[in-house]
Structures are given as structure tokens and as C-alpha cells.
């Protein structure tokens, strides 16, 4: 896709961070914007900012965990704009810790948002795009954490590897039935956003038992501090919108942002192919 004016983009997790940066890039390109987010207050602020930039905006409170919310998002998008051309399955959360220390609630929450959120987006919107039979593009936000693994981030890696696999397989499946719907997976390294404060987006149904000793342990506190540090040391978020749209124009599937991480992705692949074991201990910004 090269001609964006008048197109319609749906962005989940669009009220903050990467989602909002994508929305601002859409505004620059005169794309009509549907921002969907669980956080009503942030959504309202984002809507006002985008409207002040001259964008045509529909803001809908949406929990990507709930399929009925995603169906409503699709219905309302069509009701307001009549078509959908770009879908950004971007909402995501992070919880740090080893697999056995995290609560089952943590596991459920992260997998529901980071994986099921994308499944719901694809199920709600791809049939509409196929029926439209027009040029479309879907961009799933995964992470560099979906291409390599580090210690202390088991649930996040699991969810992001799943997001990459889901994107790759959807890309291949779409190729079997249409040449009009393109697909990309966004795999950034650290970006300065509010991701480290994502507890504020945790729905009540997924509340943790904060009495659990893990959440009072030094190990948990150290992981939380590290999470804050690496996000704060990331690249500025306003760099991502242009990068993503260049990839859409070039029909590039894998969108990476941090060249210094690429050799580590190569190292993981070599370990797999040459009979090595997981060995990535140091990554820029982590230790
Ligand atoms: N910031 C980074 O360093 C980084 C790196 C790699 C990948 N990512 C991924 O980028 C995506 C966006 O994260 P961000 O860094 O902009 O974080 P952010 O917290 O700034 O923005 C995420 C948005 O998602 C929304 N959200 C959370 N749960 C939701 C739900 N159930 N339904 C709908 N919306 C929900 C939040 O309200 C928030 O507005 C995530 O998938 C994240 O995993 C971020």
C-alpha cells in the first residue's frame, strides 16, 4: 500500500505509546483513525490530541481479551467509515519473572492480551477484509522478545514467540487465498513508552494475589526495577510510526528497530542449527 489518504486504520492499544505513535503517523497521512483501548481516560485524551491534529477519529473503549469487544469494534468501524484498510493488533502488557514464580493469573493475563488479543483482531477483521476484496495491511506488534529469549521474562517471551508464529502463519495462509491482504510483524527492541506501568491496565478478573510471597521478594523487585530501566533507556517512541509505514509501503514482513540486537537473533538460530544450547545473557539495555 502506498496511497494512504482516506484509508481507515484500526489500532488496538492506541491510547498510549507505540499505538498512539502509529495513530499520529496515520493523522499525518490523512488516514481515518479508530483507536481502541481498555483505558477510557487515556483514550479520551488521545482522541482529543488526534482531533487537534486534524484527524478524523473514532475512539472506542475495547478490551482485546473479550471477543465481543473486538466484534463491536469491527461493527462500529464499518458503521462509521464503511470499510477498514489497516489493522494494528498492538495492545500488550508485560510481567517479569521465571515461569514457576509468576501466578497463573499473570500467565493468563499476558497470554490473553498479547496472544488472544491478536487472535481476536484477526478473527474479527480478516473476514471483513476478504469480503471487501480491497488492498489491506495487517500489522501485529510482537517484539524482539519474540525472536530471542533472555532470563526473567518467561511469560512475555512465550506470548511474543506466539505472536510471531501467529503472524507468520497468517501471512502464509493469506497468500493461499488472496494477494490483496498484506501482513507485517513489528518486532522492536526497547522503546520509551508506559509499558513498565501496564499494571494499571490489568482487568479485575486477572487481579493477582499480592499476598503471594513472590511479589514481596527481592527477585521480583529487581525484575521490576530492570523493566523500568530498560524501557526508559529505549529509543524515543516518535521514531516508530515512520519505520512502520515505510515497511507497509515496501510490503516488508519483519519490522525490526534495533540493529544491535540482530547478531543475537543470529546467535540463537546458530545455536539451534549447530546443536548449541540457549546462551544469550547480555543484551543492550538489559544488564
Ligand atoms: N515499549 C517497548 O519497549 C516494547 C518493545 C517491544 C514490544 N512492545 C510491544 O508494543 C505494544 C505496545 O506497548 P507500548 O510499549 O506502547 O506500551 P503502553 O503501555 O505505552 O501502551 C499499551 C496500550 O495497550 C493498552 N492495553 C493494555 N491492555 C489492553 C487490553 N486488554 N485491551 C485493549 N488495550 C489494552 C493500554 O491501555 C495502553 O494504552 C505491546 O504489544 C508491547 O508488548 C513494546
From TrEMBL:
Keywords: NADP, Oxidoreductase. It comes from the Bacteria. SUPFAM superfamilies: NAD(P)-binding Rossmann-fold domains. GO terms for molecular function: oxidoreductase activity. The keyword Ligase does not apply. Belongs to the short-chain dehydrogenases/reductases (SDR) family. This is Short-chain dehydrogenase/reductase SDR.
